[in-house]
Design brief:
Layout lengths: L1 H24 L4 E6 L5 H17 L2 E6 L4 H13 L4 E4 L7 H9 L3 E5 L8 E4 L2 H19 L5 E6 L4 H17 L4 E7 L7 H12 L5 E4 L2 H13 L8 E6 L2 H8 L4 E7 L2 H13 L8 E2 L2 E5 L3 H4 L4
Parallel strand pairs: 1-2, 1-3, 3-4, 4-5, 5-11, 6-7, 6-8, 8-9, 9-10
Antiparallel strand pairs: 10-12
């Protein structure tokens, strides 16, 4: 009888262990998206894409804006770990979150960084930020050379709060100086990182400060589309004014298509599907020792019809 009871107990314990293992193995996938802001079109588009994509896959999803505040980012990471996220997509600005991300990794969470490279990740989707700046600056210089006979008064919008964006801003300057040497860069302005309204207020100030300003080169579309509206509101003739930027948002594309002062943008290949693809791959155990470089292309009036159809 004692042997029978021991055998039954062993079977029950074995079954419990298998059930626990199976429950752990079959835990529902949950993706956490940590964004610097969810107020600009670029990040809203990513958020919407991830939300739709995870729903289609039957995954759970949560997104958090840390409002460019590293302390909020750390708290958000801790909450995502507590909330049992399988993958955290961290679009952080610098290494200030590395300790929190490392702790998340130790808890079994996969870390995807996008748009910046720090020391903690399982997969990093990034790009040559100086190279992106060169793309923006080259489009700017080409337009100056073809439309303004190589002479222009330029203001560059960048941010000093993010090392990668500093590199992008430097790339803009380098390309303009190289390709349109007679263009005059009046000022390089730190407008902050994805701050709603910064493009409007900065452009209003620049137009007052430099009445002969006729070109603005921005590190991102958020500032550029606000600058576009500010230039229009100021009554500046559109034919001799150009704005160039990066992100390929719908508002920027619409501006290019409508022959406004928005003349060009650099667009990334759709990010949400790419993020979801690499989420699946890291969850299956795939290792990435190299940075995954994101594809980009320049969009101007010459090729806008390939990328945008007016609604």
């Amino acid at each position: 009888m004692k042997k029978i009871m021991c055998g039954v107990l062993a079977l029950l314990m074995s079954g419990a262990m298998l059930f626990a293992f199976g429950a752990k193995r079959q835990k529902k996938v949950k993706i956490g998206f940590l964004a610097p802001t969810l107020q600009t079109e670029f990040f809203i588009t990513i958020d919407d894409g991830l939300k739709a994509g995870t729903k289609a896959k039957g995954w759970d999803y949560v997104s958090v804006s840390f409002d460019n505040d590293s302390s909020k980012a750390v708290t958000a990471i801790e909450n995502m770990v507590t909330g049992q996220c399988s993958v955290i997509i961290a679009m952080v600005s610098d290494s200030s979150c590395d300790a929190a991300l490392k702790l998340a990794q130790s808890e079994g969470v996969k870390i995807m960084e996008c748009g910046v490279q720090t020391s903690v990740y399982d997969v990093c989707l990034n790009t040559d930020q100086h190279g992106i700046g060169v793309q923006i600056g080259t489009m700017t210089a080409d337009w100056i050379n073809s439309k303004l006979s190589g002479k222009a008064n330029v203001v560059v919008y960048t941010t000093f709060q993010n090392q990668d964006m500093q590199k992008r801003g430097q790339g803009i300057q380098d390309a303009i100086k190289k390709n349109s040497p007679n263009a005059n860069i009046l000022e390089v302005v730190d407008i902050g990182k994805d701050v709603v309204g910064a493009g409007t207020s900065t452009t209003e100030n620049m137009l007052q400060k430099y009445p002969d300003l006729n070109v603005i080169a921005c590190y991102g579309d958020a500032a550029a589309v606000e600058a576009m509206e500010a230039v229009k509101a100021a009554g500046v003739p559109a034919s001799k004014f150009g704005i160039f930027s990066c992100d390929g948002t719908e508002r920027a594309l619409k501006g290019i298509a409508s022959n406004s002062v928005q003349r060009g943008t650099v667009q990334f290949a759709p990010l949400a599907p790419q993020m979801l693809e690499y989420c699946e791959r890291v969850l299956k155990g795939e290792k990435f020792s190299q940075i995954v470089m994101m594809e980009t292309h320049n969009i101007t009036a010459a090729n806008i019809s390939k990328y945008y159809t007016a609604k």
